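Researcher: Please translate sequence to structure tokens.
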Amino acid sequence: MEKIKIVISDCHLSAGLHFESEKNPHEDFFFDDEMIAFFEYFSSGRYADAEVELIINGDYLDFLNVPYRGEFEEVITEQFALYKLECILAGHPRVMTALKRFAALPDKTILYNIGNHDADLFFPKVRERLIRAWDPEGRCPSPKIRVNYETPVIDLDGGVQIHHGNQLEAVHMFNYEKPIITEGLGQPVLNIPWGSFYVLKIVNRFKWERDYVDKVRPVKAMFLWGLLFDTWFTLKFMFLSVFYFMKTRFIYSPQRRSRLTVTAKILQQETTTFLQDLERDARELLERQENVQILIMGHTHHPMYKSYPNGKTYINTGTWTKMINLDLRGIGGSYRLTFALVEYGVDGKAKASLQTWMGEYRPYRTFTG
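Model: Translation complete:
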């Protein structure tokens, strides 16, 4: 082993356990110590002399969960995005220091792929601030830190391909050709999809009443159970969801863009799919691309390892936040600190596995479902 890639996603670091002088209900990450130990393990001991790249595959930082004076603003300017980034950096200072320490070591680098909760990184000054925060010498551009914002796909050696996964769902899909709106506005505004509006204006509002609303999968099962056992709350949730969808998709505003083709695709996906775990999309991508042998995604918060008869592999890295699963394949609540480990042999071939971080004395074990 001379070269490895470790892939994590969906950790959702927000503004910390306490924010704006009170307990923060919008912070979902509680494993600062475990994550620091994770970075230290893969940069010391048997990995000290190895080439290790940490690939952060989207939604590591959660800009959508940072309020301003208790409110969630849907008009996201570069200055507002910078404010939110500073709140996240201050909310998890020890993790930020650990990332900087990791990048300071020989042959250790960090590659950040944008997801749907950290799209504020499309702004140049936000990317620069993050890169300077993690670069050992505060440089930008940095030889140690890179943010991928040009394309949603990362291709690695050995037939390994990485997507966050949000681009496969119309509700969360960003326009990479035009991520920022500039026409007719006093200052540029982030061109966010319906799913981000939904988090900002619906989910974050209802988290004050039911803190689990963003943790249940599949979401449609939550609505079905809610209609039976929490009827009034669920009806309010559903009514506001439909109202805000109509408002943001069919009423013009210069501060957002709503393409009819995307709206149609959202309606088609949301009415025909009960469980969206991206495995079917992953298989189609693997079949369509002959040179891709290993496909790694995040986004769904559902860890998965699938090896297919044609020798190809799909891995979903899951999440480091609590999830409540109403799917009978894994019903219940749990924390699973999962990550993908990609190892390269001397022949350049890649071998990938899904692992669960266990801590300092038992660093990881093979994920078994």
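Researcher: Any highlights?
Model: The mean pLDDT is 87.
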